[in-house]
Amino acid sequence: MSHEIEKMFFVGETPWHKLGTKLSMAPTSAEAIKAAGLDWLVETMAMETAQGGLAVPNHKAVVRSSDCRVLGVVGKGYVPLQNKDAFGFFDAFVEAGEATYETAGSLRSGARIWILAKLNRDPSVIMGDDVVEKYVLLSNGHDGSLAVRAGYTPIRTVCSNTLALAHGDSASKLMRIRHTAKVTETLEAVREVMDMANATFEASAEQYRALARRAIDKNDLRKYVTKVFATKAAV
User: What pLDDT sits at residue 233?
Assistant: First the structure.
């Protein structure tokens, strides 16, 4: 299914797929990790062939401790980021009252996870009821196919599709972090650039407002459509 959800929680508006556990109020980190079904560990294990028991060099399996599910095969330099450490990235924001947990969950049977917190800052109002909320997103792949990403996004992540949208949206300011021994140290450094990302976010919002205020006539619209779709101008 397109949402690819294994388990999740959400606060506020029910997602389009109507899955997950709805919480009546923003949870603590301990409550959030449990409600999201992410209170499990992963470990790496050596691999060998089924026939002959020959060692598979330079590769290892990532295994979920709760059910021994193999989540992926990775290189020898891969260091997993535990879910509890991913939630730890948000602790400073949540404990300081700067953000509250909005959604979190696992995708593809645990191979990918995400955590989303809503910033307690005024949203960017473009015009009328066109409001852009501000979130902090952390996503991670336990299967070796996705680097850790953390930073700002205007996308309320609730499934695989919206996670992909957040990753690809130009308004998202996400840093990619490799799975190495320094992954948790790098997450600490992400906090230092959050204010800069917010400033960029606001600058983009002001550009949207300027576009919204600008009127367009039929001639301008015709030129725009002709240029964007590479069509011949109407006679």
Answer: 54
pLDDT for position 192: 62
Distance CA(141)–CA(74), nearest Å, equals 11
Neighbour order of strands in the sheet with 55-64? 42-48, 55-64, 70-75
In 108-219, which ranges are E strands?
A: 112-119, 124-127, 130-132, 135-141, 148-153, 173-177
Q: What is the pLDDT of residue 109?
A: 95
Is residue 167 classed exposed, middle or buried when 0-12, 13-18 and 19+ CB atoms within 10 A define those classes?
A: middle
Query: What is the pTM (predicted TM-score) of this model?
Result: 0.81
Low-confidence ranges of the chain (pLDDT < 70): 1-2, 181, 185-198, 200-201, 231-235
What pLDDT was estimated at residue 187?
66
Longest dimension (CA), the chain: 75
Find, among 125, 146, 88, 93, the residue nearest to 208 by Cα.
125
Our separate counts of H helices and E strands in the chain read: 6, 12
Residue 208 confidence (pLDDT): 72
Rounded to whole angstroms, the Cα distance separating 149 from 159 reads 16
Pairwise CA distance, residues 156 & 184, whole Å: 24
Report the pLDDT value the prediction gives residue 8, as an integer from 0 to 100: 97
Residue 135 sits at φ, ψ, to 5 deg, of: -130, 160
d(CA 43, CA 128): 49
Give the pair of three-digit tokens for residue 153.
Answer: 């996004």
- For the record, the structure tokens of 121 come out as 């800052």
Q: For the CA atoms of 82, 111, 158, 133, what is the dihedral angle to 10 degrees? A: 50
Rounded to the nearest 5 degrees, what angle is found at the Cα of 154, between the Cα atoms of 16 and 89?
Answer: 100
Q: What is the pLDDT of residue 229?
A: 83
